Amino acid sequence: MTPISPENPLTSEDALSLLALLSAGVEIEPGMSELELVRAEERWGFRFAPEHRTLLGAGLPTGSSNWPDWRDGDPQDLAKLLSWPVDGVLFDVEHNDFWHPDWEPRPAGMRDALEVARTHLAEVPALVPVHSHRYLLADPDRMGTPVLSMYQTDIIYYGADLADYFHHEFGRRAPASGDDAYAAIPFWDYFLD
């Protein structure tokens, strides 16, 4: 499988093939229009990665709470999904003594530590839910970034890119290309070493 890249972008046909991997329990609604995608981005304050935009334009998976419904989803559910990565880090700051080495020295008081952590986390690259707790970088200028499985600061690669993720999660895993390198994701890379 050729990795997604500017030279090899995900096409609508590729996206339809990925959506075809989904089980019968998943409904695929008509793809989102450009206007719907822009409205979702404006409403939630991020930009979809090019391949995520292509996928959602080909078809919108729905039918369970594991798929974010960017068209008609409950705003509270979507807000919770979008805050999941940062909330997970904050949970580990509060309950598991996590402190990122690039942050200033950890304040002694928990309230102050959480406030400093929130300030730093407000500046990290946004991640957008693809399915359940699998996330893709929200960056319209980059494609081919890995899909991450996120549970607090327990974060792992779950696909080299969106297509690899779909094959890993819903289909038959494609043979490795021989290159185990993943595209960098600032800040979030720290948890992946």
Summarize the structure in words.
A hairpin with a 2-residue loop joins strand 5 (147-151) and strand 6. The protein has one domain (12-192). By secondary structure, it is of the alpha+beta class. The protein starts with 11 loop residues before the first helix and ends in a 23-residue tail after the last helix. It is globular and about 55 Å long. Helix content is 36%, strand content 15%. Helix 1 (12-19) crosses helix 3 (50-58). The model has no long low-confidence stretch (mean pLDDT 93). The longest helix has 21 residues, at 75-95. The protein has a four-stranded antiparallel sheet. The chain has a two-stranded antiparallel sheet with strand order 1-2.
Number of domains: 1
**What is the radius of gyration computed over CA atoms, rounded to a whole number of angstroms?**
17 Å
What's the overall average pLDDT, rounded? 93
Describe the main β-sheet briefly. 4 strands, antiparallel
Q: Strand arrangement, largest sheet? A: 3-4-5-6
Shape: globular
Total number of helical segments? 6
* First-last Cα distance: 25 Å
Which spans have pLDDT < 50 for at least 5 consecutive residues? Answer: none
Order of helices and strands: HEHHEHHEEEEH
How much helical structure, as a percent, in the residues? 25-40%
Strand-pairing-aware structural class: alpha+beta
